[in-house]
Design a protein that fits this description.
Helix content is about 55%, strand content about 20%. The protein has twelve helices and ten strands. The chain has helices at about 1-35, 40-45, 50-70, 75-110, 115-145, 150-155, 155-160, 165-175, 175-190, 230-235, 260-275, 305-330; strands spanning about 200, 205-210, 215-220, 225-230, 240, 250-255, 280-290, 295-305, 350-355, 355-360. Helix 11 packs across helix 12. The radius of gyration is 37 Å and the shape is elongated.
Length: about 375
């Protein structure tokens, strides 16, 4: 009877105690979150309830498993398994706590600063810091798990002795990966590009959607995702339309006839912009910027608060201006003028061309 009750008491007591402690911690965090609405820390810490329970249950079972006297022939393997579970769950809990602290710091900074550019910069840095912490915790946890095996402990001394050679070999083999890693840190803390920035890379216009330690994702206007190594942004030039502020100035060009009513077009442009919600009202203008023998080039200048709105303003101006010119001033649209060629008289007669020499005119009566 004792052989049955002892394992039930040890295992059941560990599970029950784990559930009770997890429930109490969740209740305390929920009450703290209700009292302190200004910070999301307590609500974010509630995400660590499951890893906390796994850590607690693993620690209780690891410490009291010997008292259960169950499966004595496999006690070493079971103990190692519980140790691996304890290490993995501890790493999981540390990552959740670090994520909660980092997210809380970002939320406080975003609440205190209204500058979108600075908030996006901090968001980029916070995201990369969180990824670095996760990677470090994962590497340490993996190393700790490997060291629980006797074979790895025996090989530890030789591994440390050859660490320098292995480091050189690994550095040469992973040169590209390490380059992207340092490029990611340079982007995060060098403020070159941030999450939410509007960029143009390789002729593609889009918004920075994700930044990791090794790659960067740009979301284009048609919902495509362009994934590029972060080293691209440190080695090649690119356009960042959000650098220094999100406000933008756009242009719309028209090819028109010389008789186009420029003054009326200027008034019409102002009317179009007043009715366009995407126009921020900072600036506007219309001027003739070039002329050819058959047309003139008219440039309309408009402004907006960001790249999305400047696109809306430009297409609105282009559509409504062309429709207005077509309906009220069709003569201003570009035309191809043609006229019949009349040859001049020579001695009272028109010259007759030699059919065998069309480029050389011939005169005479014959």
């Amino acid at each position: 009877m004792e052989d049955v009750l002892r394992p039930l008491i040890v295992i059941g007591g560990s599970v029950v105690l784990t559930v009770i402690v997890g429930w109490l911690v969740d209740v305390l965090l929920r009450r703290a979150d209700e009292r302190h609405h200004e910070t999301p820390l307590w609500g974010l810490l509630r995400r660590g309830r499951v890893p906390l329970q796994v850590v607690l249950c693993g620690a209780l079972l690891r410490g009291s498993y010997g008292q259960a006297k169950l499966a004595k022939d496999h006690s070493e393997q079971i103990g190692r398994t519980l140790t691996l579970v304890l290490i993995g769950s501890t790493a999981w809990l540390v990552v959740r706590i670090a994520a909660a602290v980092v997210e809380t710091s970002y939320a406080r900074y975003a609440a205190m600063h209204r500058d979108p550019a600075r908030v996006r910069r901090v968001r980029t840095q916070v995201t990369l810091i969180q990824r670095v912490v996760t990677a470090i915790v994962g590497v340490v946890a993996t190393a700790a798990m490997l060291l629980t095996f006797p074979a790895m402990q025996a090989a530890g001394a030789s591994l440390l002795a050859s660490a320098g050679i292995l480091g050189i070999v690994a550095g040469v083999a992973a040169q590209s990966t390490l380059g992207n890693l340092f490029a990611g840190l340079q982007i995060a803390f060098g403020d070159m590009v941030r999450l939410g920035d509007t960029v143009v890379v390789d002729g593609e216009w889009g918004t920075v959607d994700e930044i990791t330690l090794t790659f960067l994702t740009v979301r284009t206007w048609d919902e495509r995702r362009i994934t590029m190594p972060v080293s691209y942004f440190t080695a090649k030039p690119f356009e960042n339309w959000s650098r220094g502020g999100a406000e933008m100035t756009g242009t719309v060009f028209f090819q028109l006839d010389h008789t186009a009513p420029i003054a009326l077009m200027r008034d019409r442009l102002h009317d179009i912009l007043r009715d366009c919600a995407a126009w921020d009202g900072r600036d506007w203008g219309l001027a003739v910027t070039d002329t050819t023998t058959s047309t003139i080039q008219v440039r309309a200048l408009v402004t907006a608060k960001d790249a999305d709105d400047i696109w809306t303003v430009r297409v609105t101006v282009r559509e409504q201006m062309v429709r207005w010119l077509t309906e009220h001033h069709s003569y201003a649209l570009p035309r191809v003028t043609t006229v019949s060629a009349v040859e001049p008289l020579t001695n009272g007669h028109r010259p007759r061309h030699d059919p065998f020499s069309p480029d050389v005119p011939r005169t005479g009566r014959g």
